[in-house]
Structures are given as structure tokens and as C-alpha cells.
Design a protein that fits this description.
Blueprint lengths: L9 H18 L7 H25 L13 H21 L4 H22 L1
Helix pairs in contact: 1-3, 2-3
Length: about 120
């Protein structure tokens, strides 16, 4: 495992999420590549996105006080990380090459940005 936040590579992240995926599958009744496992991970991702949203509302002081949650930069960072981890686990379970998908999407976005720059 990397020593500090600056030492984390995509390969480290990928290897760690692969181990986590196997641990989650071992603890559940679903095969890693089954639709059930994929839907379980999709539901977990939705849960984590909701928690991230709550932190963003709290950061902007728009969350209701009766929620009784602590809002902090550390909590926000944790929720961003949870969303990334859940996304990587879901990608693995669905047979998506996360690295290739990110590269392709980044290329698409760069192409759109360049096309918009030309129009301006």
C-alpha cells in the first residue's frame, strides 16, 4: 500500500479495488460477475452518491440541521473516495476496463472542448 496520498498510482488503486471486490463477493451470496452482484454494487454507488450529496449540502450550509450529521472537509473527502471506490468496483464487476474507459472519456471530453474553442 502506498505510504502517503501522493504515492497512490492508478495501478495501486486498481489492485486494491480488485482485492476489495473479491472480499465483498466472498461476504455476499452473489458471484462476482453475476447481475445480482452488479446491481448490489450499483445500489451501493447510489448510496455513496447520496452521502456525497449530503456532504456537499452541509458544506454549503444547505443541509437541514435536524439531520444531525457532522459536515467537514475530511467527511467530504471520504465520500468522494467512496464514490470512486464504488465506481471502480462496479466497473470491475461489469467487466469494464476502468482505465480504458477513463482514457476514452477524457479523449471525448478533450475533443468537445477543442471543438468549442474553435467555434469561439
Amino acid at each position: 500500500m502506498p505510504d502517503g496520498p501522493d504515492d497512490l498510482s492508478f495501478d495501486d488503486f486498481s489492485a486494491w479495488t480488485h482485492r476489495q471486490t473479491r472480499l465483498i463477493a466472498d461476504r455476499s451470496t452473489a458471484d462476482i460477475h453475476s447481475d445480482l452482484f452488479i446491481y448490489m454494487q450499483a445500489a451501493k454507488l447510489v448510496e455513496e452518491v447520496g452521502e456525497l450529496h449530503a456532504q456537499l449540502l452541509g458544506r454549503s450550509k444547505l443541509q437541514r440541521r435536524d439531520k444531525g450529521q457532522e459536515f467537514s472537509r475530511t467527511a467530504l473527502e471520504g465520500e468522494v473516495a467512496d464514490v470512486m471506490i464504488c465506481t471502480a468496483i462496479l466497473a470491475q464487476a461489469a467487466g469494464v476496463d476502468f482505465r480504458a474507459a477513463l482514457r476514452a472519456k477524457m479523449h471525448t471530453v478533450d475533443g468537445r472542448d477543442q471543438a468549442e474553442d474553435v467555434r469561439e
